Amino acid sequence: MRRWLLVLSTIGLAALLLVPFMPSLVYDIFVMKALCFVLFACAFNLLLGHTGILSFGHAAFFGTGAYVTGQLVKEYGVPTDLGILAGGLVAALLGAVIGALAIRRSGIYLAMITLAMSQLVYFFFLQAPFTGAEDGLQRIPRGVFLGIIDLRNDTALYYVVLAIIGAGLWVIWRTVNSPFGHVLRAIREHEPRAVSLGYPVARYKVMVFTISAGLSGIAGSLKAIIFQLAALSDVHWHTSGDVILMTLLGGMNTIFGPAVGAAIISTLGHYLDPFGGWVTVITGVVFMTCILVFRRGVLGQIEQRFQHRSEPSTSTEVHAEPDTSNSPNGA
Amino acid sequence: MLFGVPLQALMGQLMLGIVNGSFYAVLSLGLAIIFGVLKIVNFAHGAFFMLGAFTAFLLAQHLGANYWFVLFLAPVFVALVGMLFEWLFLRRLYGLDPIYGLLLTFSLVLVLEGGFRVAFGSSGQPFSTPDMLTGTINLGFMVLPLYRAFVIVAALSSCLVTWYVIERTSLGASLRAATERPDLTQAFGINVPRLVTLTYGAGVGLAAFAGVLAAPIFHVNPSMGSSLVITIFAIVVIGGLGSIKGAIITGLGLGVVEGLTRLFYSEFSSTIVFLIMVLVLMLRPAGLFGREEG
């Protein structure tokens, strides 16, 4: 399993590095967009998969990153690198605030609160004087990265984006595999026990909210630089829904499953574009199928298959079956 | 003049607030009933509201159906669609984490909204007020459009009827029993799965009823429900999903507050409900009528 994963990720990485040299095969702007969603989905999954918190308002952080970076770079002439950093920081701050409010409730209420809060952020960007309302922030200059790399060159931009996304994913990987990450999983598995062990659970939740929001903000900032546009759709609840779908589809109990989900959904969106309005319907159907029959997600399913092969005596399927004893059906 | 605004304007916004508040009340009531029995937050509530409005629009426009007939038939049709959805899909998720129910109903929103957008476009379709209810009543201090008055009365009566059925009839008693202990209720010979299906149907039927009432006031369009449902979520967080009375009072109250905000601080009118939610979360996290969840 481990060896296969290594081989596959090496091939994947090589393919990603070669993208700008194969313009006839793939469109590099599309790959960059997909990469932004890879980081966004993996950051989102710090909450859903690793802490067991469903945030239904992550577009707020993604969009805030995009708008803050866009505004700073376009209107105040801030260097692109600092602009992206600021986008991440402001999103992280917003994450801390929304997180601190949302964790006052749990489960389904928390999801509704984050959704409502993100709607508040949406209205802010709709009405604020500098955001251009329905038009969004247009013609954001790409500028120069670290004073030497000219981002108007698509290839240069591509490698910068790849490097930043890579760094972001590394932060997520480190977070999940740190003592901090273990406490998060303890909270997910049994919150009262984590409390009784003396962990300041609320503080941990706010911290993971902040990290997740900050990285989502950076993903949004990058998207604003790539497309030179920060739009209302970045803060819209549809985007919050998309990132949940990506995460579920890829596998929320894995670290990089959401990346797979993001790649699949971005590709679907890209190639289904000619079908116009049907994209939403198809997304909905994929979402439904995912929830009804495919809750582990793509990577989760693969992982399970491998585990199955290595230890055929214990079936992991049994544990996964829903506990129907206390269902409303009473059956 | 009152508080520095013309009385006419004050009354007008107050009226609009009560109309919106009645919609909020009916919708959050349906959400609360569904949550009580299914333990699922029905994200598709706004989509069923939209479906109700569209069903009414299609029946009236293409078949020339009578308004009163439509007001009855559209909710029944939507309730059947909802029951089918519950029976085919939703019931597979019982016993799992309730977030899956939220997500499944969310995916239904994408399918319904996307489908209607493909079929009818995003722009609104006008729906004419029934002849019998056009015109106005002059109350002396304000001129009240008859249809708005009808909406308030109809919405609040549907709330009252729902409350009566749940609190005062034997069907309601079994429903409340199934909310508390589905297993024991089943043991007493009540068909709980059927009750669950019916509850979902009733809940989304209520949403569709509100949708038909709203059709002549708002334009009938595919996204008319989705922004509404987010406001409803905020209302439900403020009021708590636990109590039926709470859902009705909070819905109505926040509609009025929203209307008055439009008059005094119009730039906050779309966000006031969310701001109140923030305030409630800081001061009384369990909600105004809520019990602390376990």
Automatic annotation (TrEMBL), chain A:
InterPro entries to which the protein is assigned, alphabetical: ABC_transp_permease, LivM-like
Region spans: Disordered: 309-331
Record membrane topology: Multi-pass membrane protein
Ranges of biased composition (kind: Polar residues): 312-331
Keywords (A to Z) from UniProt: Cell membrane, Membrane, Transmembrane, Transmembrane helix
Database matches in Pfam families: BPD_transp_2
Transmembrane segments: 38-61, 82-103, 109-130, 156-173, 206-231, 243-269, 275-294
Secretion signal, residue range per the UniProt entry: none
Main location, first listed in the record: membrane
Listed name of the protein: Amino acid/amide ABC transporter membrane protein 2, HAAT family
UniProtKB/TrEMBL annotation, chain B:
Transmembrane parts of this sequence: 12-37, 43-60, 67-87, 99-120, 141-166, 198-218, 230-257, 263-283
Pfam family for this entry, one: BPD_transp_2
Keyword Cell membrane: yes
GO molecular function: transmembrane transporter activity
Membrane topology reported for the UniProt record: Multi-pass membrane protein
Subcellular location(s) per record: Cell inner membrane
InterPro entries assigned to the protein according to its UniProt record, in alphabetical order: ABC_transp_permease, BCAA_transport_permease
Keyword DNA damage: no
UniProt-recorded name of the protein: Amino acid/amide ABC transporter membrane protein 1, HAAT family
